[in-house]
Amino acid sequence: MNESLDEMYRDIILDHYRSPRGKKPLEKTDIASEGHNPSCGDEIDVELQVDDDTVKDVHVNCHGCAISVASGSMLAEIVKGKTLAEAFRIAELVKKILKGEETEIPEDLGDLDALKGVRQFPVRIKCALLSWVTLMEGLKDYKSGQRGGKSSISTDDDKD
Amino acid sequence: MASKTTQNGTSLRSGPTSLMVDIVKADFPLLDQTIHGHKLVYLDNAASSQKPRVVINALLDYYRKTNANIHRGLHTLAERATDSYERTRDHVARFVGGVDREEIIFTSGTTESINLVAATWGEENIHEGDEIVITEMEHHANLVPWVILAQKKKAVLKHIPITICGHLDLSQIDDIITPKTKLLALTHMSNVLGTINPVEELAAKAHQHGAVVLADVAQSMPHMPVDIPSLGVDFCAFSAHKMLGPTGVGILYGKRELLDKMPPYNMGGEMIREVRFDHITWAELPFKFEGGTPNVADVVAFDAALTYLEALGMQNVRDHEERLTGYAFERLSELKDLEIQGPRETGQRGGAISFTDPNIHPHDISTFLDSRGIAIRAGHHCAQPLMRVLGKVATARASLYIYNDEADVDQLVEALIEMRRYFGV
Ligand SMILES: Cc1ncc(COP(=O)(O)O)c(C=O)c1O
Question: Based on the structure, what is the number of domains in chain B?
């Protein structure tokens, strides 16, 4: 077996890929955001049901590679039950992890550790980021009062 | 078709009907390596081919023994360099079916060749309301320059659609190519579908209406006999790097009557006859279009690539790939639900095989195959409009050449079977 391949496609990633979480449509959608990765054509919808500034439920629909699907599935699992501010902070943390700026991962976010293997494949980092930047875009628009519409972001526009 | 005997004995590499792939393979030093512990299988030939030792040596020899600027110096090296460079031009003119050497212009690649035509001929001849016809299967190189020119000139861009089998759909062709058509620009062989298009027939139709025809032969020239005079087109563009030559060399063929009337492209040295502050006359063909110091070394080394291909015999190259494509189709059919794009009749297509797996993204396919030593391409292949027509965001593409054999196809198929197990979907 090829080691770096197994580093990227860790068991946790493959598990999320084979049975992605957050497939069920929401009863009520408060935040909706779509993301697009032009270089590989991946597309994702991230939707949140919000109650009292807390994420009650998450729906993620991703057409893409194993890495983007798995990353979106982890997002669905992790963000559920968090406050909007926490969700945003976790997304920032994921960006840092993928860029190699942060290596410490809190215990309750253990699955995210599996994304570290992607760092060895620079062209695939965008795939792992797609769901998280899409989430951030939705949260930003929601916070700034642009509600009811659909936020939209491309990984090419996410320059920071 | 028997191949010619050459000094370096390349005749050994092709028998009366087939290539001796083992011997051919041994001519390509790069292929002799392992990637992630597996024998390298290079199946990304539609993107760029590998180079035989004779080409690599020609490049080294040039820098070791010949290097000088051309057309300028009056010393021995400058003469040698000029001779070698111009000899390649003669060789290209013969290789493409016997055209005049003045009709062969060296550029940096297919992309520049087409942009040159758009910026010179297109700039002067396309006017408001004129129609430019392309096809749905064009590479961006034969698409973007025309989209931009049409926008700038308020011209109309029309396209010939494709059928579900991946052929051009010619059922409405008389509504598409009309007296308003000023240019037909089409690919001879699709880099995604492999389709070989009926360029002769369409060129004749366009010419009836007085249009000019450009064929993108970047994929056909390396893989089959291409005879420009019988294609009957006005311009042809291709790249050396896809046919065993170095990167950074492209060819533009243009009919002399058209080239004569076209304004120059790069202004500067080499492309002028006489310069005064108030008056300039252009150099004769082909130098009018080769301003500045060209890519002499790579052009010179390209000569060796042409010799190598001629020794194999282009019909042998074609026959080999046709047979191997058939074998690949047969073996790939073992993978249930693998979707292959483009025509299935191997006689009507080249060896670029695009495919998708219903459950595994092309990027995951490519990453997995790489881990097994297999190089393929995944993505939109610079043909986004075609991808939209196919309803795909991307495909995986394995593309064959002279040094590929059944064992390479077997390694690909076995790795794909293993991949499905690995991803477990
Ligand atoms: C059909 C076709 N046209 C044009 C090109 C562009 O060639 P180049 O990148 O060498 O200019 C390619 C290669 O990628 C091609 O396959």
Answer: 2
Strand order in the sheet with A31-37: A54-63, A42-51, A31-37, A151-154
**Percent of chain A at pLDDT above 70?**
97
Instruction: Please say whether the beta carbons of B329 and B343 come within 8 A.
Output: no
Among the atoms of ligand 1, which is closest to the Cα of residue B381? Answer: 14
Looking at residues A2-18, what average pLDDT do you find?
88
Q: What is the pTM of this model?
A: 0.92
Instruction: Please indicate whether residue B382 is annotated as part of the active site.
Output: yes
- For position B233, which CATH number holds? 3.40.640.10
pLDDT (tens digit per residue) in B308-367: 999 999 999 999 999 999 999 999 999 999 999 999 999 999 999 999 999 999 999 999
Measured CA angle at B269 (ends B264, B274), to 5 deg: 75
Give the CATH fold of the A3-154 domain.
Sufe protein. Chain: A (3.90.1010)
Q: Does one domain contain both B144 and B170? A: yes
Averaged over B208-221, what is the pLDDT?
Answer: 98
Q: Side by side, which strands form the sheet with B131-135?
A: B104-107, B250-254, B235-239, B212-216, B181-187, B131-135, B156-160
**Does B75 share its domain with B212?**
yes
CA B170 / ligand 1 centre spacing (Å): 24
Q: Where are the domains of chain A?
A: 3-154
The answer to whether B422 faces chain A, any CB pair under 8 Å, is yes
Q: What is the pLDDT of residue B18?
A: 76
The CATH code of the domain that includes B406 is: 3.90.1150.10
Task: Decide if pLDDT at A110 tops 90.
Answer: no
- What's the alpha-carbon Rg for chain B, to the nearest Å? 22
Show the DSSP H helices in chain A as ranges: 3-8, 11-18, 66-79, 84-99, 125-143
Task: Write down which residue in B246, B281, B309 finishes a domain.
Answer: B309
Of the candidates B283, B309, B335, which is a domain's last residue? B309
CB nearest B371 (choices: A5, A40, A65)? A5
**Chain B, window 71-110: residues with a beta carbon less than 8 angstroms from a chain A beta carbon:** none
Question: Quick one: B264 and B211 in the same domain?
Answer: yes
B13 and B37 assigned to the same domain: yes
Domain of B19, in residue numbers: 4-51+313-422
Q: Are residues B114 and B154 in the same domain?
A: yes
Residue with the larger pLDDT of the pair B190 and A38: B190
Q: Can you tell me whether residue B231 is helix, strand or coil?
A: helix
Residues 6+ apart with CB under 8 A from B145: B114, B115, B117, B118, B119, B122
Residue matched to tokens 């049901």: A49
Instruction: Looking at the structure, tell me whether residues B25 and B150 fall in a common domain.
Output: no
ipTM score of complex = 0.86
Q: What residues of chain A, 51 to 110, have a C-beta less than 8 Å from chain B?
A: 63-67
Q: Provide the percentage of residues in chain B whose pLDDT is more than 70.
A: 96
Same structural domain, B33 and B135 = no
Q: Please indicate whether, in this complex, the C-beta atoms of B367 and A40 are within 8 angstroms of each other.
A: no
